[in-house]
Every structure is written in C-alpha cells, then in structure tokens.
Write a structure and sequence with these properties.
Length: about 200
C-alpha cells in the first residue's frame, strides 16, 4: 500500500513544481534580458565628460583708481563634446569673473546647440564696471599689474539638456570652473591654455 500512494502523489507534486519553476525561470529570464538591454544601451551611449578650457584672454581699458576697477576682460572658451551619440542644448549660459574671490564681472553667452564630437569656441566679454574692491584686492591687483599679468578665476554655469537619438533629457546644471587664468596685461604676451574643471 505505501508504495502505491507514493507513486500516485509523486507525479502531481513534480508537475506542480515544474509549472512554478517554469514561471520563475521565464520571469528571471525576462529580468535578466531587461537588465542586459539597459546595460548595452548604457555602454553604447555612455556620456563622456565634457572638456573645457580657456584658450585666450586679454585686458582692455584697464583703470584702477581709488580702489575702483574699470576694465574689459576678453576670453575665448573652448567647449568640446567628445560624445559620438550625445548632443547638447545649452539653453542658458552665465559667466562670472573673480579676482581674490571677489566678483568683478558678469555676462551671459548666447545659447547654442552642440552636435556630437564638436568643438565650439565662445567669445566672452566680462567687464568690470566701476567695481569697488577691498583694500587687500586693490593692493594685490596693483602688484600683479606690475608683474604683467592678472590671475582671475572664471566660473560658467549653464542649463543644459542632453539629446540621444530622439530622446531629450531634462534640464541639468553644468558648472565649469577655470583658474587661475593668467591674463596678460600686454597683448603681445603669450597666453597659457588653462584647463577647467567640469561638474555636472
Ligand atoms: C589672443 O588675443 C589677442 C588679443 O585679442 C590676440 O592678439 C591673439 O591673436 C589671440 N591669440 C589666439 C591664439 O587666439
Ligand atoms: C580712470 O578712472 C578715473 C575715475 O573714474 C578717471 O578720473 C580717469 O580719467 C580714468 N583714467 C583713464 C586713463 O581713463
Ligand atoms: C561645431 O559646431 C558649430 C556650430 O554648429 C560649427 O560652427 C563648427 O564648425 C563645429 N565645429 C566642428 C569642429 O565640428
Ligand atoms: C565688452 O563689453 C563692454 C561693456 O559691456 C564694451 O564697452 C566693450 O566694447 C566690449 N568689448 C568687446 C570687444 O566686445
């Protein structure tokens, strides 16, 4: 008798188990497949870091009188998008110049669209319009002027969107910090290309 009950029960248990197992295997397979698809998409699209540098800088109409600075600072920013699948919308770009941590100039840059693997040069005109400097900054600036160059820090903040195929990302804030940018007082001096830190 015990042998017959065993032979009657065993097949049903095995059948029930195998249906559950099949569903579990299918689910697992689908999850693995979805994960693989995401991984492959990420690996092929994977955004590379944007590369920024200051390529040129010059000073015009420099006038430091009684601790007040009036001057035009001209920069050429190089923006490189190394990605072959990701293009970038620069919707809003703001740039600031700092001397001794004091903001001396502010300007915005024309929005633009940057294609894949593109290098774009941006001209930037930052003017100090009668900026009151601290005593320390005034003294430092006089000394640097005699030395022949002024060390500034340039900060760029941009609202960007990324585009992959037809998909566009939401707005993200890109922060670029360049410094020290050694701006020569004389037009005839060479300028050292200055790399920037990029934070996204
Ligand atoms: C840098 O700017 C100065 C002054 O505007 C200009 O004379 C010079 O040709 C520029 N150099 C480069 C490499 O663009
Ligand atoms: C510099 O600015 C001061 C005060 O604004 C002005 O009196 C002076 O004429 C300016 N100097 C030059 C060379 O422009
Ligand atoms: C980058 O894009 C700009 C604007 O679309 C274009 O003027 C420039 O020639 C491009 N540069 C390169 C290196 O592709
Ligand atoms: C830079 O901006 C100042 C004031 O905003 C202006 O006077 C000057 O002509 C500009 N320089 C260039 C080269 O655009």
């Amino acid at each position: 008798m015990p042998t017959t009950t065993q032979s009657q029960n065993a097949p049903t248990t095995r059948r029930r188990l195998s249906i559950g197992a099949i569903i579990a295997i299918i689910l697992l397979f689908l999850i693995v497949l979805a994960g693989l698809a995401i991984l492959i998409a990420w690996l092929t699209i994977r955004p590379k870091r944007l590369v920024y540098s200051i390529e040129n800088a010059s000073i015009r109409n420099y006038n430091l009188t009684n601790g007040h600075l009036k001057s035009d600072f001209m920069f050429t920013i190089r923006a490189y998008n190394p990605n072959s699948r990701v293009s970038i919308y620069y919707d809003k770009i703001e740039a600031k110049a700092y001397y001794d941590e004091e903001m001396i100039g502010f300007n915005s840059i024309q929005p633009f669209y940057q294609r894949t693997r593109n290098v774009t040069h941006m001209g930037l005109n930052l003017s100090a319009k009668d900026v009151a400097l601290s005593e320390v900054a005034t003294r430092d600036l006089r000394m640097e002027r005699v030395r022949g160059r002024i060390d500034l820090e340039i900060k760029v903040k941009a609202k960007v969107r990324f585009k992959v195929g037809k998909l566009k990302s939401r707005h993200r804030t890109l922060r670029v910090t360049c410094g020290p940018v050694k701006v020569p007082m004389s037009m005839y001096k060479n300028f050292d290309n200055t790399p920037c830190d990029v934070d996204l």
